[in-house]
Amino acid sequence: MPRRVRIHSFLVGLAFVCIALTVLLGPLAFGAVEPWAYSLMAILSYTALMAALTHGILTGGLGRLRVPALSPALLGLALVCAQFTPWPVQLLRVVSPRTVSLHALTAPPLAAATPYLSPSL
Q1: Looking at the structure, do residues 75 and 101 belong to the same domain, yes or no?
Q2: Confidence band (pLDDT; 50, 70, 90) for 12?
Q3: Which of 8, 17, 27, 49 has the fewest Cβ atoms within 10 Å of its own Cβ atom?
Q4: Could you give phi then psi for residue 116, rounded to 5 degrees?
């Protein structure tokens, strides 16, 4: 089997396995194991998205990859990026003042020393 076909088969299989595991393990997030269950669902979802996008780029069929779940997945990826990117404290005070006050309560020296904080949207 040519290498390119194996890569495409692997990416499609990876996406399907991640989606199936997310569906099967999703109910765990509503029990006593919430933190790691939510993390696992996020990792699986973003791995499936990455595999589908990589497959679309490699095959040149990204235009055909218009599944209804792609838009919310990309919006979720944008939200994750926005939350991991440190924002200037003045901008964060306008967008999410509660986040700045929580940073000040939990880590006063750190919150006072840095001009940038990560938001909690």
Answers
A1: no
A2: confident
A3: 27
A4: -125, 140
